[in-house]
Hints:
Number of strands: 8
Structural class: alpha+beta
Number of domains: 1
Amino acid sequence: MLIxxxxxxxxxxxxxxxxxFSSCTPDxxxxxxxxxxxxxxxxxxxxxxLVGANARFFNPNKQTFKLxxxxxxxxxxxxxxxTLEPSEKVDIPANSAFVIPVSMQVxxxxxxxxxxxxxxxxxxxxxxxxxxxxxxxxxxxxxxxNVDFTENISL
Length: 155
């Protein structure tokens, strides 16, 4: 009988703690992706174009967040060219727009069609699609910001 009472009180305590912690989680609004801006070619190394850009977002929440990592693929004409990587760890400020600097390496052997050498020389506008997500944290709560954006860039 004593064992059942102890077991029951542990179960009640566990349920109480779960309810307490779940009620403390704030209502968070979705952080919105706005665009990719300031795309620039920073050089060539080992047959790869070194490209930098800024990913712009807006955080409507009262809370700040921390960038964990990203998985964003860059496509041209449905062909994957690169994977975008955050250049640095970023604290995401509350109630404001913010920028995450990103970089990528594009293998020049993958550049074909309108993105080939003639396209680079002629500074032609090239449509690039950015698709994937950023992973962020609010304390220990993980969040994902989805990205699906097409930008015409001039190299």
